[in-house]
Design goal:
The complex is a heterodimer.
Chain A: H1 6-16, E1 19-25, E2 31-37, H2 39-63
Antiparallel strand pairs in A: 1-2
Chain B: H1 10-27, H2 32-43, H3 46-57, H4 61-78, H5 80-109, E1 120-127, E2 132-136, H6 137-146, E3 150-165, E4 168-177, H7 180-185, E5 189-192, E6 202-205, H8 207-214, E7 224-227, E8 230-238, E9 260-263, E10 279-286, H9 292-309, E11 318-324, H10 325-365, H11 367-375, H12 380-416, H13 431-457, H14 461-467, H15 472-511, E12 522-528, H16 537-552, E13 557-570, E14 587-593, H17 597-601, E15 605-608, E16 619-623, H18 624-631, E17 640-643, E18 652-660, E19 675-679, E20 688-695, H19 699-711, E21 719-724, H20 725-732, H21 734-768, H22 770-778, H23 783-812, H24 828-854, H25 858-864
Parallel strand pairs in B: 4-9, 6-8, 14-19, 16-18
Antiparallel strand pairs in B: 1-2, 1-10, 1-11, 2-10, 3-4, 3-7, 3-10, 5-8, 6-9, 7-8, 12-20, 12-21, 13-14, 13-20, 15-18, 16-19, 17-18
Helix pairs in contact in B: 1-2, 4-12, 5-10, 5-12, 5-13, 6-9, 10-13, 10-15, 10-21, 11-14, 12-13, 15-21, 15-23, 15-24, 21-23, 21-24, 22-25, 23-24
The chains are: A alpha+beta, B alpha+beta.
Amino acid sequence: MEQGSLYPALHRLIKRGWITFDEGTSENNRRAKYYRLTAKGRKQLELETSRWDKLARAIAQILRPT
Amino acid sequence: MRKHKSLKNLDEDIRDHIERETDDNIDRGMSPEEARAAALRKFGNVTLVKEDTWRVWNPVWLEQLLQDLRYCARTLRRSPAFTVVVTLTLAVAIGMNTAAFSIVNAVLLKPLAYSNPDRWVWVANYNRQFRNELVSGPDFFDWQAQAQSFEGLAGYDYQDSTIATADGATEDRIGQISNEFWQLSGAQTIAGRLLRSGDEDALLLTAGFFERRFGSDPRVIGSTVTLEGRPVTIVGVLAPGFRFLLPMQQSFNDLREIEAYTPLDITPETEVRGGPTAVIQVAGKLKPGVALEQARAEIETIQSRVAKAHPEVYYGDFQVRVDSLQEKLVGSSRLGLIVLSAAAALVLLIACANVVSLLLARASARRREVAIRAAAGAGKGRVFRQFFAEGMLLAALGGAAGLLVAYGAMATILRLSWNAVPRIGEAVMDARVLAFTSAISLAVAIVFGFAPALLLWKTNLHCTLKDGARTFSASSTSLRFRGLLVAGELALAVVLLVGAGLLVKSFRLMSSHPPGLAPERVLVMTVVLSGPAYAGRPAQGAYMTEVLRRIESVPGVEAAGISNPFMQGVAKVEGMPAPSRRQPPQIVTFSMASAAYGKAIGMQLVKGRWTTDGEPTPVLVINRSFARRIFDSEDPLGKRIQVPGPLGEKEAYATVVGIVDDLKHSKLDAEPQPEVLVPYKQSPFLRAANVTVRVASDPLSVAPALRQLISEIDKSQPVYDVKTLEEALADSIAPRRFNLYLIGTLATVALLLAVIGVYGVIAYSVAQRTHEIGVRMALGATRSEVIGMVVRQGLGVALAGIGTGVAGAYLLTRMMESLLYQVKPTDPQTFAAVAIALALTALIASWGPALKAALIDPVIALRCE
C-alpha cells in the first residue's frame, strides 16, 4: 500500500462528515493536522465494526464447526 | 470550479509528509538523496494522489466530458472522410426537417398576426346547391346589428382595380374591408393612420406596395390617386408583414396578394333584400369566453328570423357556418404539410440508420482500442461515455450544418412557391425552430451514442485482446445488425418513394393536355376596363374589338382571342322542365369568347361549328360536359339555352351551334365543368377579358410588343398578368406542385441514402470476408460464383427491406388520398415501379463490392493474415 493513497481516503471521510481536523503544530514544531472522529463518524464506525464482527463470527463458525 | 477548504493545504500536506518521511529515513542512516528517493517511492505517484484527492471534492463528469470531446475531435479529424460523410448526411436530413418544421410552424402552429388570434372566426352561409360559402350584404348587416357573440364583424371582398397616378396606371389587387376590422385586428401603421369608421374614399397601403409602387415616398400619405376612375386619398401605410389573409379558395387568379385596402362600400341602406345585393365574405372576432357553437347558434337564430320575415327570399338551401379563421385559412394545407413533415422524418430516420451503420463499422474496428483502453484502467462506463461524446459531436456538427441547409432550402422554397401555401411567407428561423433543431440533434446524438455502446457492451476484454486482429466472429453480429438497419432503411425509402411516385403520377395526369394545345406557345394576359368612359356596353365592345384587331395584325401571331367567364348559374333549356327540388340543378359557367378563342387556346371542335364574330342571331357553343350532363343522350345542336341579357335587359334564348371538347384551361386539378361559350359581341358583360394569343415562336419575346400595342389603345387601361398558358396552368396547381417538389426532393435524398447504405454494408462485408473469399477461391470457387455470392447477400437484404416497405406503403398511402388526382393510393403501377427501381439500385450498389470481391487474389488474401 502506498502512503499517498491515505489522502484521497482521508478526504472521502471528511466529505462524508465522519472525521474532521484541526490545524496545529507537532512536538518538533512542524505544521500538523490532527484528524479526529465526529459523532457521525463514531456511529458509522460502530455500525461497520458490528458488521465486521458478524461476518467474522460467521466465518469463524464455518471454519471451526462445532 | 470551486475549491473545498480541505483542499487548500493539500500540496503542503503532501510536501510535509514526504519531508518528514525523508527526515525519518535520514535518521535511519540513509544519505539525503537516498532518503528522499525512498520516501517518494513509498508515497507513490504524487500527481495521481493529488488528482484523486481533488476528485473527491469535485465532480469529474464535466471535466471528463470535455476530455472526451477533445479526444473525439482528434479521432474525427483523423478520419476526415467519415466525418464529412456523416456531417453531410445529417446536415441534409436535419436541414430538411428544420425547413419542414419552420413551414409547419409558420402555417399551422403560429397564431394569426391579429390581436387575440384565437377569437377570430369566419362566418358564412353555405349554399348546398351551389356548394359555396358566401354572405349577402343584407344578411351581413343584420348580423352586425343583432349578434351579441361578437366584439365585431367585418365584411370583405377583393378585386383587381386600376390605380392611376401621375406615373401611369397599374392593375393591382385591392381588398375592401369594413372599417371595423382595423380596430379589431390591432394592426399597426408605419406612416399615416388606419382606416376608421366614416372613411369612404380612402386607401390604406401595405408596406410592400408603398415601397414598390410609390418608392417609399412619405409625401404620398395624404395625396390623392385615382382608383377605378374615382379619387381616393392615401391615409396610411401598414406595418411590414401585416396583411389581412383572406381565407378563400385558392384558384387560378387568387394567387395575387392584396396590395392596398379601401373601406367596404356597402351600407345597410344600399343593401336591401329583393334588390341587387353585394356578395361578400365575413370575418369576426368573438367576445372573450364565447364559444364557436354559441356564435353559430346565434347567427342561425338571426337567419331563421330573417327567413320568416322575408318569405320572398329563399333561405332553404343555406346552412350557417362559423369556423376558426385560422382553420379556414390553413386547414386545406394541413394534410400536405403533415405528409411533408412525415417524409422529412423518414429521411432523418434513413440518414440516422446510415450513420449508425457507419458507426457500428467503426466500433467493430475499434474493438481492440476499446479493449486496450479498458484494460489500461478506463472503466467501462468511461469508455462508453466516449461513444456518447462522439455521437454528440457528430450530431452538433450535423445540426449546425443542417441549419445552413435549412436556411438555403427555405430561401429556395419561398422564392419558388411563395403562393403555394397560405402564410408560408411568415416562415422564419425563430426560437421555436432552433429549439426543434436542437431537440432532433440531441435525439440523434443519443441514438449515435447508444448503438455502438450496445454493440460493445458484451465485448469480452480477454477474448478481444487474445483474438488479435482476427475479430471475425464478433463483427459478424454487427454486420447482421447493419444488414437489418439497411433493410429498414430501404423499407422507409420505399414508403417515401411510393408516396412521391403517386404524387408524380397525379401531377402528370393533371398536367397532361391534348396534343395541339401546346401551352408553351400561348400567351395569356388580362385587361379589366375601369373608369366612367367604359361604363357602357358599347364602349367595352369597341375596346375589345380594337384589342383583337391590333393583336391579329402582329406578325408571328397565329390566332388571338378573348374570353371571360361572366356568370355562373342554372342553365335554362327551352322545353326542358325546370330542375326539381329533389334533383339539384347543374351549375353552368357562362363565358364570352371571340371567334378565334378556340383556335388560340387549342380547343377542339367535336360537333357542329364555331361561332363567328358577326352572328346575326343569338347562338352559342357548349362543351362536352354540358352536353353530357344536361342533354344526356339527346343531340344538343339546335336546342335553345337562355342567356342573361345586359343589365336592365331581358334574357334571350340562343341556339346551340357547336360542341367543343372539355379543356382544362384554368384550374388543372378541377373536374371539367359544364360551360357555355357566347360570342363576345352578344355577351351582356365585357368589362374584363382574358386575352389568349397563340404565337409561332417564343411567346415571351412577343409579349412586350403586344402589351405596348394594347396599352396604346388607352393608356389608362393597364394590361396585367402576362404569362404563358403553361405558366398559368402550372400556377393553378401551385400547392400541389409545392408538395410534389418537396416530397420529390425528400424521396430522392432517401433513395440516395439507401443506396449508400446498401453499398456501405456490402463493401464492408466484402472487406471483412477477404480472407474467407480467398479461401473459397483457393478451393476452386470461380469469380462469377464469388460475384453471385456477394450480390445475393445484397439482394437478400434489399428484398427484405423492399417487401416490408411495400407493405408499409400499402397501409400508409391511403392517408394521402386527397392529395392525389385520378390515382388510387394503392396504384399497382407505382408500387411495382418503385419496388423494381429500388431492387435494381440495390443490385447496382452491391455490384461494385462484388466485382472487388471477385478480383481478390487468393494468394495475397491468404498471406495477408
